[in-house]
Each structure stands twice: as structure tokens, then as C-alpha cells.
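C-alpha cells please, single chain.
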Amino acid sequence: MTHDRWVREDAINTIIAERKKGPWPVVWRLLPKKGRLLEVGCSAGFFIEYVHDRLANLSLTGVDISPSAVELAAKRDVQRAQFRVADGRSLPFANGSFDVVYSGHFVEHMVDPVPALQEQRRVLVPRGMCIVHFPHGDKPYVEHVHDNVRFVDVRDWLEAAGFRDIDSKPVVHGPAVDEGIMWGLK
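Here you go.
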């Protein structure tokens, strides 16, 4: 199933409901209470909407390579958010533009995630955090380049991109997919 079709399927509501119960609260606890957040691979803006409703002092920006996903994201009721079409390997932002970068279910779509993670590092402030949320023990519902992302893979990619102080949370189990969360500092 393609991404553009996926964001319009009824099944998406089940997956988003699972993420609101499992991995997103874990990610939410890692976020700063104020500052600037960039989501790379924002799809239709579900995560940004989730954060918007919980952290009033975060400026929110989402990018996705899919124009139709960004169009859907822009229709969400998130006043503090901006959405734009952009490739995660070439972000249209100055160095040090964000305090935290989140990429959820993004790395498994990249042949080589390291350049995209290096780009995420570039747009972070010093000591800024990159959070990678990925399927682990995947049951893909859209096309993936990497069908079984392991924690060691994500750690290696983060290290190769120049991140340090890398840590992770255990897998969050769900009926659609088991999910992992790993982060590192610039």
C-alpha cells in the first residue's frame, strides 16, 4: 500500500489510536516543555496534532515528501503548526533551527537513513535531541525498505550521523506493529 493511500484508509484510525496509547506518550515525555519541534516524515500531521494538544509552548513544524500528506496535515486544527513539502535528506531550514527533531516511522523507508539523520542533526541546536520512532519486528502496512529494523541498526545509524548519548525505550507492543524509540543528542 502506498503512503498516499494509507493516509486515507480507515485502518489509519486504528493505528493512530494505538500510537496514542503506546509509543507517543513515551515520546511526549522526552520532549522539552517549550522550544521548537520539527517532525520529519509528518504524514497527515497526526503526531503534531497529538503534541499540539498537550504542550502549549512548543512551536511545531512538520515536513513530508508527499504533497497530499502535507495538504491533509495543513487541514488539521493545529494553530501553532506549519507544514511543508520537503525531502528529509535536504531540509529547508538553517543550522540550529530546532530544539528537537522527531521522525516517526521514517527510517525504515530510507535506503540509507544516515544522510537524513545527519540532516536532522544539522538543524538541531547544540545538545538538541533527535528522536527516532521505528517499527521493530514489523508487520508492514506500507512499503518499507527495511522490513525488520533492529535497535542496533538505529543505534548504528544515529552514531554514524554524529549523535551521542544515545538511549532507547523498550519495544511498545501493539496489534499492528511493535515499536521502538531511540534518541541521541547533537
